[in-house]
Design brief:
There is one protein chain. With 307 residues, the protein is an alpha/beta fold. 31% of the residues lie in helices and 23% in strands. Helix 2 (85-94) crosses helix 4 (116-122) and helix 4 (116-122) packs parallel to helix 5 (138-150).
Length: 307
């Protein structure tokens, strides 16, 4: 029993020493972890995500939009009229653009491709996307001749095609198949793109009218909608706005244009749905996003309701 008692005492003493050592080790480990955690917190807020910039130029009665993706690549969608070509070049240079990685011609009307020749002559172009609809007009012929002379990569993407520009996904929603015998076949065969960075999407509707819109229903949700056909009632209506549910809608049109754009039906629909409206008629518009939030020019929001 004494021997047993002696062993028990020694064991207790050994156990006490072991527990003390473990306790000290745990304190040291805790201090190390706390120090590491403090270093992490002390490094400040997480790095902000790089931004994508979106510009809608004022080209009068026409369309021209520029995306500068977070990785520095650029996409120019349409180039207004022939008269607006030089102004577009100046504006792009003021944005720091030196190369256009993808130049998009949504359709061959002169208010969308008229300035293409000037743009192509002044910038290096990576590739060109075209709707593929042949109108045979002089602006379109000049456009194609310039592409051939410059030996630029050329493609006619259709619905289902998509491409990544860094972290940005560009999806072609239309055209799917050529539409004929509509009120405007050129409009109803235009390229329609959905451009998505993170959780923020931009729907570039070109001059799409009701016939083409029916081929891609339901339309996807988006944060920003570049209204179809300059705010025409046959391009943008209440149904389209409900399907896409945008935060902001951009109307690209010229002052005192002969078409009466934007049509009162579109203006009223935007007002009823309390969607933020921005017009190019008063100057270029600038938006930006980090893929989570959207920054827009608050001072350019249009509140007036036309009668």
């Amino acid at each position: 029993m004494k021997i047993s008692g002696s062993v028990s005492s020694a064991f207790k003493k050994s156990l006490s020493l072991s527990l003390s050592a473990i306790f000290i080790a745990l304190i040291l480990l805790s201090a190390t972890v706390t120090s590491a955690a403090a270093d992490s917190v002390g490094s400040g807020k997480p790095d902000k995500m790089p931004e994508m910039h979106f510009y809608v130029l004022n080209v009068g009665q026409g369309d021209c939009s520029l995306f500068i993706f977070p990785n520095g690549q650029t996409m120019l969608i349409d180039a207004g009229t022939e008269d607006s070509g030089k102004g577009i070049v100046r504006y792009l240079k003021s944005c720091g653009v030196k190369k256009i990685d993808c130049l998009v011609a949504t359709h061959p009307h002169s208010d969308h491709i008229g300035g293409m020749k000037t743009v192509i002559e002044k910038f290096k172009i990576g590739k060109i996307w075209d709707s593929g609809f042949i109108l045979g007009s002089k602006p379109q012929k000049d456009f194609y001749i310039t592409i051939k002379n410059k030996n630029i990569r050329f493609g006619r993407p259709k619905r289902g095609y998509s491409e990544k520009f860094g972290e940005v996904l560009v999806e072609v929603l239309a055209p799917a198949a050529e539409l004929r015998n509509t009120d405007s076949d050129a409009n109803n065969n235009c390229l329609v793109l959905l451009i998505t960075y993170g959780k923020v999407s931009f729907l570039m509707a070109g001059d799409m009218e009701e016939e083409e819109r029916r081929t891609i229903e339901p339309l996807p949700l988006c944060a920003v909608l570049k209204a179809a056909h300059h705010g025409s009632k046959n391009g943008t209506d209440m149904r389209m706005l409900r399907e896409t549910s945008p935060i902001a809608v951009i109307l690209s049109y010229g002052k005192d244009n002969s078409y009466g754009f934007p049509h009162k039906e579109v203006v009223l629909a935007l007002s009823k749905m309390r969607i933020k409206r921005f017009d190019t008629v008063n100057g270029a518009l600038k938006f930006r996003t980090d893929g989570i939030s959207l920054t827009y020019p608050k001072n350019r929001e249009v509140f007036a309701v036309e009668k």
